[in-house]
Amino acid sequence: MKKQVKVKPNSKQQRITEEVDGTLTVHLKSPPVDGKANAEMIELLAKKYGIPKANISIRAGLSSKMKLVEIEI
């Protein structure tokens, strides 16, 4: 399944919210430096869906706030 993900780095809390259109908004504690925010996002999504981190990949937007993420369930 593919999901649009909006990333908000440097947040006070980690959380994932799903919008009405199916887009996920992911609030991360990590700064957007050296891929730390991407790694934290993958970890949070893996916990949410109960799958290994290897089943989640970023298809587009590696250095953008809007990402296209593929999740293999």
UniProtKB/TrEMBL annotation:
Pfam families: DUF167 (PF02594)
Cellular component, GO, one term: cytoplasm
Record InterPro entries: DUF167, YggU-like_sf
SMART domains noted in UniProt: DUF167
Family, as annotated: Belongs to the UPF0235 family.
Name by which UniProt lists this protein: UPF0235 protein V2H45_02010
Species of origin: Tumidithrix elongata BACA0141
